[in-house]
Amino acid sequence: MDQPLAGIRVVDLTRILSGPFCSMLLGDLGADVIKVESPGLGDHVRGLGAGVEGMSWYFASFNRNKRSMTLDLKSDAGKAVLRRLLADADVLVENYRPGVLAAMGFDRAALDAINPRLVVGSVNGYGSTGPYRDRPAFDFITQAMSGFMSVNGSQESGPMRAAPPLTDLIAGLYAAFAIVAALRVRDRDGEGQAVEASMMGGMMSMLAYLSAAQLATGKTPAPTGNDHPIASPYGLFRAADGHVAVAPSTAPTLRRFLDAIGLIGLLDEPRFATNADRVANRAALNALIDDAMCHETQEVWIARLNAAGVPCGRVQTLGEVFADPQVAAQEMVLDVPHPGHGTVRMTGFPMKFAKTPSQVRHPAPDLGQDTEAVLAEAGYDAADIARLRADGVV
Amino acid sequence: MDQPLAGIRVVDLTRILSGPFCSMLLGDLGADVIKVESPGLGDHVRGLGAGVEGMSWYFASFNRNKRSMTLDLKSDAGKAVLRRLLADADVLVENYRPGVLAAMGFDRAALDAINPRLVVGSVNGYGSTGPYRDRPAFDFITQAMSGFMSVNGSQESGPMRAAPPLTDLIAGLYAAFAIVAALRVRDRDGEGQAVEASMMGGMMSMLAYLSAAQLATGKTPAPTGNDHPIASPYGLFRAADGHVAVAPSTAPTLRRFLDAIGLIGLLDEPRFATNADRVANRAALNALIDDAMCHETQEVWIARLNAAGVPCGRVQTLGEVFADPQVAAQEMVLDVPHPGHGTVRMTGFPMKFAKTPSQVRHPAPDLGQDTEAVLAEAGYDAADIARLRADGVV
């Protein structure tokens, strides 16, 4: 069976991270993604991060399953080429600031005139309406504005950003999802539409019970570090060779945990009898648990507690993650040959399909490597292509 | 135009968070989601978090756009009802541990026999293959195992979980996306399939350039708190009434930032001339920026810097977020009437569709409120329903 987006052509005007992650997810689902880049320069990320044999692994890991063509979208001739590409495309993806695409001559009316079946997916910082729509966005800023930073970290650390660029990635993921949902509408009803996701809105959707608590009580949640605000014990405990993360999420799990570490008797003490007691006396309880666990290794505890049905694990470094047998079994690290650039290792596919699995159909492209092929598919002949090349349009 | 999943029926066996977030996203796209809950008890989250007028706002905000029926899936009679529901359904969603659904009598062969067009979406901790498949999962643990905690936080704080249950939500989001993609395959080819997303795999996919750096260099990234590992200036700076987050992401943006705060001359000093110099002398540079900004308010700086095209903003508390005019303009906070429970405020829709917008078609259901309606739709008559009720099956 073909992949979900087999036969779908995506014209991809995105750059950096949020948009390229979106279009990569579409490529991973089988779409033909044409990455449109500036002649001579290309996506800024080509020059970022550690490179091996002339290939940025950061670029490679967010641009697999795409082709690359160059096109000068500032020129009228370049815009004419884009119009021709869009006439035959299913999806346009962009992560300009709101209004920029329209200013380039591609507002919704223009796009409808070119191709009423086109799904236009946008990823932006704050959304395309509202007082902040024109603000420049950046992951760190939308982490701050969304409320995420105010709860991440501890009282001691103060507001803390998450290290990965979560708002870029979450917005890109929602945008890709919205595009596929809009394709289903188009398959059924024949009409394209505009869809979008913002970095601030996406991050807000991930605040879960913290938002619910704020809205229900009017009380602003404080950062609680690795402590669960309303459950104890919970957190990092000391084994002989490092910490073990333990989260006994229910009363039966808690009993199994305390039993496994020889402390089941604590539940008979008034200071630890109820969850409220244990939250109030968290420091004393944590110290007793550390004392009970510090004589055995992480490996021993993790085997023993998992066997008892207690959620637990290690704080793995990224080096440990990519050497983890579970990660290998789940194919969450891939070795991808890149002709001319050696073999690039990258994160695998987070969505698993029993009958239509994702695969790396092609590695991240060199800048403009598919320009001529894409132009030929759009009906340009060799003379046209030579002229576009001579004029610096591609 | 109808919503993307209009006419799609989802039988939802999920509980707590990762699965209910997945099925809520499907409901937000227009699916008819039937939440199947244990008679008498229901989803554990009904009793969690702050409640108002008998409704947990945490439950309400993750179970909108669903109906609820009770069904005892431990009984043979309950399983027979489930089989009948699945015969007419499009999607089954579950977040049991891998293997549990099969042990209940619903392995893939059994499901195929019931309905070969069924898409079966699973959300789990580590994936349904590999050495950890049977481990109990919990957000805190998969944050630790995925590598996320090792880079979140600072050198001083040590490994730090993110406050929100990100791994639940990201896995639920990927699972919903995979389900819609699998529906597109089924629309085209007529066959359902199993799809899944794991909490550990989903979180790994969000590590972005940190993973790329690890894989390319073999060096494990250290947590860097609010500092960008390879860019300076970047971070939280002191205005008269609190911090301003500033991320001058490019050389021109940096010039505009320093110009706006009267420090453009710093770029002529050897210690601040290049990005590498500025990273090396980050503390001195940050102190000078604090001195330059501390005489004006956050509001003044945010207006001035945004006008200059410099990404900036405040660290908003959740109370401030829900009062933010941008959040209102984007309808990212909703007032939803819940008959019998007052009006519940909750986070809005992160995906925006120009022609098929999401809406709250019905608020979170009371336990079992739709049991009889769903049974009647499945062909049970009043006497059948009375007998199921008397036998405690529903």
From TrEMBL, chains A, B:
Transferase found in the keyword field: yes
SUPFAM superfamilies assigned to the protein according to its UniProt record, in alphabetical order: CoA-transferase family III (CaiB/BaiF)
Keywords: Transferase
A Pfam family hit: CoA_transf_3
GO MF terms, alphabetically ordered: CoA-transferase activity
PANTHER family named among the record's database cross-references: SUCCINATE--HYDROXYMETHYLGLUTARATE COA-TRANSFERASE
Protein known as: L-carnitine dehydratase/acyl CoA transferase
